[in-house]
Write a structure and sequence with these properties.
alpha/beta, 8 strands, binds S-adenosylmethionine, single chain, 10 helices, 18% strand
Length: 258
Amino acid sequence: MAELESSKNARTESAISKQADLDQVHHYDSVEDMPENIQKYWHQRYDLFSLYDDGIRLTDDAWFGVTPEPVANKIADHLSTSVPASVTTIIDCFAGAGGNTIALALSGRWKQIFAIERDATTLACAEHNARLYGVHGRIWFIRGDCFDVLRGQLKSIVKNAVVFASPPWGGPGYRDAEVFDLSRMEPYGLEKLAGEYTRVAGRVVLYLPRSSDLNQIAGWRERLGLKERVRVTHYCMWGSSKAICVFLGDFSFNEDDR
Ligand SMILES: C[S@@+](CC[C@H](N)C(=O)[O-])C[C@H]1O[C@@H](n2cnc3c(N)ncnc32)[C@H](O)[C@@H]1O
Protein backbone atom coordinates (compact mmCIF):
# COMPACT_ATOMS: atom_id res chain seq x y z
CA MET A 1 0.00 0.00 0.00
CA ALA A 2 1.46 3.35 -1.01
CA GLU A 3 1.87 6.01 1.59
CA LEU A 4 1.35 9.65 0.86
CA GLU A 5 2.66 12.63 2.70
CA SER A 6 2.90 16.29 2.00
CA SER A 7 5.72 17.92 3.89
CA LYS A 8 3.71 21.11 4.33
CA ASN A 9 3.26 20.59 8.04
CA ALA A 10 6.23 18.40 8.72
CA ARG A 11 8.26 20.59 11.00
CA THR A 12 10.02 17.78 12.79
CA GLU A 13 10.89 14.31 11.57
CA SER A 14 8.44 13.36 8.83
CA ALA A 15 6.61 10.05 8.50
CA ILE A 16 8.76 9.33 5.45
CA SER A 17 12.08 9.83 7.20
CA LYS A 18 10.93 7.62 10.07
CA GLN A 19 10.77 4.70 7.62
CA ALA A 20 14.26 5.28 6.25
CA ASP A 21 17.21 3.09 7.06
CA LEU A 22 19.49 5.83 8.33
CA ASP A 23 22.57 3.63 8.03
CA GLN A 24 22.20 3.89 4.26
CA VAL A 25 21.88 7.68 4.15
CA HIS A 26 25.07 9.68 3.80
CA HIS A 27 26.42 13.15 3.30
CA TYR A 28 30.06 12.65 2.44
CA ASP A 29 32.45 15.46 3.36
CA SER A 30 35.42 14.02 1.54
CA VAL A 31 36.15 11.55 -1.23
CA GLU A 32 38.06 9.32 1.20
CA ASP A 33 34.85 8.68 3.13
CA MET A 34 33.08 7.31 0.06
CA PRO A 35 33.00 3.65 -0.97
CA GLU A 36 35.42 3.10 -3.82
CA ASN A 37 32.76 2.27 -6.41
CA ILE A 38 31.20 5.75 -6.16
CA GLN A 39 34.32 7.86 -5.65
CA LYS A 40 34.29 8.79 -9.34
CA TYR A 41 31.14 10.82 -8.66
CA TRP A 42 32.78 13.02 -6.00
CA HIS A 43 34.01 15.64 -8.49
CA GLN A 44 30.47 15.77 -9.98
CA ARG A 45 28.78 16.55 -6.67
CA TYR A 46 28.03 20.20 -7.48
CA ASP A 47 26.76 19.20 -10.95
CA LEU A 48 24.29 16.90 -9.24
CA PHE A 49 23.28 19.36 -6.52
CA SER A 50 24.65 22.90 -6.41
CA LEU A 51 23.70 22.95 -2.70
CA TYR A 52 25.72 19.79 -2.00
CA ASP A 53 27.65 21.46 0.81
CA ASP A 54 24.42 22.43 2.57
CA GLY A 55 24.02 18.78 3.55
CA ILE A 56 22.63 16.90 0.54
CA ARG A 57 21.90 13.30 1.49
CA LEU A 58 22.11 10.31 -0.83
CA THR A 59 22.15 6.56 -0.58
CA ASP A 60 25.22 5.05 -2.22
CA ASP A 61 23.00 3.68 -5.02
CA ALA A 62 21.37 7.04 -5.69
CA TRP A 63 24.67 8.59 -6.88
CA PHE A 64 24.42 6.54 -10.09
CA GLY A 65 20.98 7.77 -11.05
CA VAL A 66 20.56 11.43 -10.06
CA THR A 67 19.76 13.73 -12.97
CA PRO A 68 22.40 16.52 -12.92
CA GLU A 69 20.89 19.80 -11.77
CA PRO A 70 21.47 21.82 -15.00
CA VAL A 71 19.85 19.03 -17.02
CA ALA A 72 16.94 18.72 -14.57
CA ASN A 73 16.44 22.51 -14.71
CA LYS A 74 16.44 22.53 -18.52
CA ILE A 75 13.91 19.70 -18.65
CA ALA A 76 11.77 21.58 -16.12
CA ASP A 77 12.00 24.69 -18.37
CA HIS A 78 10.87 22.71 -21.40
CA LEU A 79 7.98 21.19 -19.48
CA SER A 80 6.92 24.58 -18.15
CA THR A 81 6.44 26.01 -21.61
CA SER A 82 5.30 23.03 -23.68
CA VAL A 83 2.19 22.09 -21.72
CA PRO A 84 -1.07 24.11 -21.74
CA ALA A 85 -1.63 26.30 -18.69
CA SER A 86 -4.75 24.31 -17.85
CA VAL A 87 -2.55 21.32 -16.94
CA THR A 88 -1.20 22.04 -13.47
CA THR A 89 -0.17 18.63 -12.11
CA ILE A 90 3.01 16.68 -12.75
CA ILE A 91 3.94 13.24 -11.46
CA ASP A 92 7.61 12.22 -11.11
CA CYS A 93 7.33 8.42 -11.23
CA PHE A 94 10.90 7.55 -10.20
CA ALA A 95 11.76 10.36 -7.82
CA GLY A 96 15.06 8.89 -6.60
CA ALA A 97 16.94 11.38 -4.44
CA GLY A 98 14.95 14.27 -5.86
CA GLY A 99 16.99 15.66 -8.78
CA ASN A 100 14.06 16.13 -11.17
CA THR A 101 11.40 16.68 -8.51
CA ILE A 102 13.31 19.60 -7.01
CA ALA A 103 13.82 21.24 -10.42
CA LEU A 104 10.12 20.84 -11.24
CA ALA A 105 9.19 22.44 -7.92
CA LEU A 106 11.71 25.28 -8.35
CA SER A 107 10.18 26.11 -11.74
CA GLY A 108 7.07 27.31 -9.90
CA ARG A 109 4.97 26.11 -12.84
CA TRP A 110 3.00 23.33 -11.13
CA LYS A 111 0.20 23.51 -8.58
CA GLN A 112 0.62 19.87 -7.65
CA ILE A 113 3.79 17.80 -7.83
CA PHE A 114 3.76 14.15 -6.86
CA ALA A 115 7.06 12.34 -6.26
CA ILE A 116 6.78 8.55 -6.26
CA GLU A 117 9.66 6.36 -5.10
CA ARG A 118 9.64 2.70 -4.17
CA ASP A 119 12.53 2.78 -1.74
CA ALA A 120 11.73 4.43 1.60
CA THR A 121 15.32 5.46 2.29
CA THR A 122 15.82 7.06 -1.12
CA LEU A 123 12.49 8.86 -0.76
CA ALA A 124 13.60 10.22 2.61
CA CYS A 125 16.71 11.62 0.86
CA ALA A 126 14.46 13.28 -1.75
CA GLU A 127 12.35 14.87 0.93
CA HIS A 128 15.40 16.08 2.86
CA ASN A 129 17.08 17.45 -0.28
CA ALA A 130 13.87 19.23 -1.33
CA ARG A 131 13.82 20.83 2.11
CA LEU A 132 17.36 22.19 1.52
CA TYR A 133 16.10 23.83 -1.68
CA GLY A 134 13.06 25.22 0.17
CA VAL A 135 10.53 23.37 -1.97
CA HIS A 136 9.51 20.35 0.15
CA GLY A 137 6.19 21.97 1.01
CA ARG A 138 5.18 21.98 -2.68
CA ILE A 139 5.64 18.25 -3.17
CA TRP A 140 3.50 15.26 -2.27
CA PHE A 141 5.87 12.37 -1.54
CA ILE A 142 4.49 8.92 -2.18
CA ARG A 143 6.24 5.73 -1.23
CA GLY A 144 5.20 2.97 -3.57
CA ASP A 145 5.42 1.29 -6.95
CA CYS A 146 4.65 3.95 -9.56
CA PHE A 147 2.62 1.61 -11.75
CA ASP A 148 0.39 0.67 -8.81
CA VAL A 149 0.10 4.27 -7.64
CA LEU A 150 -0.97 5.53 -11.09
CA ARG A 151 -3.58 2.78 -11.36
CA GLY A 152 -4.77 3.31 -7.77
CA GLN A 153 -4.22 6.35 -5.61
CA LEU A 154 -3.62 8.82 -8.46
CA LYS A 155 -6.03 7.25 -10.94
CA SER A 156 -8.34 10.24 -11.18
CA ILE A 157 -5.49 12.78 -11.21
CA VAL A 158 -3.21 11.22 -13.81
CA LYS A 159 -5.57 11.71 -16.77
CA ASN A 160 -4.95 15.44 -16.79
CA ALA A 161 -1.38 15.38 -15.50
CA VAL A 162 2.06 15.12 -17.06
CA VAL A 163 3.84 11.86 -16.25
CA PHE A 164 7.62 12.24 -16.03
CA ALA A 165 9.67 9.07 -15.72
CA SER A 166 13.42 8.62 -15.24
CA PRO A 167 13.58 4.86 -14.80
CA PRO A 168 16.65 2.84 -13.87
CA TRP A 169 18.83 2.23 -16.96
CA GLY A 170 19.97 -1.25 -16.02
CA GLY A 171 20.58 -3.95 -18.55
CA PRO A 172 23.23 -5.14 -20.89
CA GLY A 173 25.77 -2.36 -21.19
CA TYR A 174 23.91 0.85 -21.97
CA ARG A 175 27.19 2.69 -21.53
CA ASP A 176 28.99 0.60 -24.15
CA ALA A 177 26.19 0.11 -26.65
CA GLU A 178 26.37 2.30 -29.73
CA VAL A 179 22.62 1.89 -29.98
CA PHE A 180 20.87 0.88 -26.76
CA ASP A 181 18.10 -1.67 -27.14
CA LEU A 182 15.29 -0.21 -25.04
CA SER A 183 13.42 -3.49 -25.00
CA ARG A 184 16.26 -4.88 -22.86
CA MET A 185 16.41 -2.02 -20.38
CA GLU A 186 15.97 -3.44 -16.88
CA PRO A 187 13.84 -3.80 -14.92
CA TYR A 188 11.37 -1.95 -17.19
CA GLY A 189 11.69 -1.93 -20.97
CA LEU A 190 10.18 0.61 -23.32
CA GLU A 191 7.11 -1.54 -23.83
CA LYS A 192 6.24 -1.52 -20.15
CA LEU A 193 6.98 2.18 -19.65
CA ALA A 194 5.35 3.61 -22.77
CA GLY A 195 2.52 1.09 -22.67
CA GLU A 196 1.55 1.62 -19.03
CA TYR A 197 1.91 5.39 -18.97
CA THR A 198 0.21 6.25 -22.25
CA ARG A 199 -2.74 4.10 -21.22
CA VAL A 200 -3.45 6.44 -18.30
CA ALA A 201 -1.97 9.82 -19.29
CA GLY A 202 -2.08 12.06 -22.35
CA ARG A 203 1.38 13.54 -21.80
CA VAL A 204 4.34 11.34 -20.95
CA VAL A 205 8.04 12.19 -20.79
CA LEU A 206 10.67 9.44 -20.62
CA TYR A 207 14.24 10.27 -19.59
CA LEU A 208 16.41 7.68 -21.31
CA PRO A 209 20.05 6.91 -22.25
CA ARG A 210 21.49 9.15 -24.97
CA SER A 211 22.22 6.10 -27.14
CA SER A 212 18.60 4.86 -27.05
CA ASP A 213 17.36 3.23 -30.25
CA LEU A 214 15.27 5.96 -31.91
CA ASN A 215 13.71 3.46 -34.31
CA GLN A 216 12.14 1.69 -31.36
CA ILE A 217 10.75 5.01 -30.14
CA ALA A 218 9.36 5.84 -33.60
CA GLY A 219 7.83 2.36 -33.70
CA TRP A 220 6.02 3.08 -30.48
CA ARG A 221 4.38 6.15 -31.95
CA GLU A 222 2.78 3.96 -34.63
CA ARG A 223 1.95 1.23 -32.16
CA LEU A 224 0.22 3.64 -29.81
CA GLY A 225 -1.51 5.36 -32.69
CA LEU A 226 -0.33 8.77 -31.47
CA LYS A 227 -1.39 11.55 -33.79
CA GLU A 228 1.19 13.96 -32.42
CA ARG A 229 4.80 13.86 -33.54
CA VAL A 230 7.13 12.37 -30.95
CA ARG A 231 9.78 14.83 -29.88
CA VAL A 232 13.21 13.63 -28.77
CA THR A 233 15.56 16.13 -27.14
CA HIS A 234 19.18 15.62 -26.17
CA TYR A 235 20.26 17.28 -22.94
CA CYS A 236 23.94 18.20 -22.91
CA MET A 237 26.53 19.23 -20.35
CA TRP A 238 30.11 20.21 -21.04
CA GLY A 239 29.46 19.76 -24.75
CA SER A 240 28.18 16.21 -24.72
CA SER A 241 24.79 14.59 -24.45
CA LYS A 242 23.92 13.22 -21.01
CA ALA A 243 20.53 11.76 -21.88
CA ILE A 244 17.44 12.21 -24.00
CA CYS A 245 13.85 12.98 -23.18
CA VAL A 246 11.11 11.45 -25.29
CA PHE A 247 7.92 13.51 -25.26
CA LEU A 248 4.89 11.35 -26.03
CA GLY A 249 1.54 13.06 -26.54
CA ASP A 250 0.31 16.60 -26.65
CA PHE A 251 3.27 18.97 -26.14
CA SER A 252 3.89 22.15 -28.08
CA PHE A 253 7.44 23.35 -28.44
CA ASN A 254 8.97 26.59 -29.48
CA GLU A 255 11.26 25.29 -32.23
CA ASP A 256 13.81 28.01 -31.48
CA ASP A 257 14.24 26.82 -27.92
CA ARG A 258 17.65 25.28 -27.20
C1 LIG B 1 17.35 6.68 -12.07
S1 LIG B 1 16.70 6.75 -10.46
C2 LIG B 1 15.78 8.27 -10.48
C3 LIG B 1 16.65 9.47 -10.23
C4 LIG B 1 15.91 10.77 -10.04
N1 LIG B 1 15.32 11.24 -11.27
C5 LIG B 1 16.86 11.82 -9.50
O1 LIG B 1 17.21 12.75 -10.22
O2 LIG B 1 17.25 11.69 -8.33
C6 LIG B 1 15.43 5.54 -10.48
C7 LIG B 1 14.70 5.36 -9.15
O3 LIG B 1 13.51 4.61 -9.38
C8 LIG B 1 13.22 3.84 -8.23
N2 LIG B 1 12.27 2.79 -8.67
C9 LIG B 1 12.53 1.64 -9.36
N3 LIG B 1 11.39 1.01 -9.67
C10 LIG B 1 10.37 1.77 -9.18
C11 LIG B 1 8.96 1.67 -9.22
N4 LIG B 1 8.36 0.63 -9.79
N5 LIG B 1 8.22 2.65 -8.66
C12 LIG B 1 8.82 3.72 -8.07
N6 LIG B 1 10.15 3.87 -7.99
C13 LIG B 1 10.92 2.92 -8.55
C14 LIG B 1 14.57 3.36 -7.76
O4 LIG B 1 14.53 3.03 -6.39
C15 LIG B 1 15.45 4.59 -8.07
O5 LIG B 1 15.56 5.41 -6.93
